[in-house]
Amino acid sequence: MWLGLWWLQLRVTIVGFNPGDFLSVDHTCDGANLPLTVQWKGAPPQTEAYVVRMYDPDAPGDTFTHWLVYNLTGEELKPSLPGLLEGYNDFGQLGYGGPCPPPRDQAHRYVVEVYALRRPLRITPPVTWKRVRSLLEDKVLARGETFVRYKRTRR
Description:
By secondary structure, this protein is mostly beta strands. It is built from one helix and seven strands. The strands form two sheets. Strands 4-3-6-7 form a four-stranded antiparallel beta sheet, covered by helices on one side.
């Protein structure tokens, strides 16, 4: 199974946050919904593209995709990158949808995973995580992840 062992592990960081830190409200539905800046290192030299996904594994029912970006080049994802190819999040919108857990829930984890690919994905819109995942099997050279947390304050 392709989601099994990885021979190469990427080192993924979210700028301004250590693994497990709580997100500032600016990056969530309770604030300005600002996308994060993500950096990574350790990809093999034959890497031609990257996929980045941010998801909530603690969402009720199933994992919830908050951000999906594909066919990136370079080792950084910034919201201001020109020509950014973004897929649909599970809010049903293109681009970033900030964390927004139910107010009564404990803190949710928000995992940012990066896949290094041997070649860019050939995919046409609408681009969803389900479709991207089905195309990754023979293309992944390395993978890495990190996470942050968020808990809404009761209003």
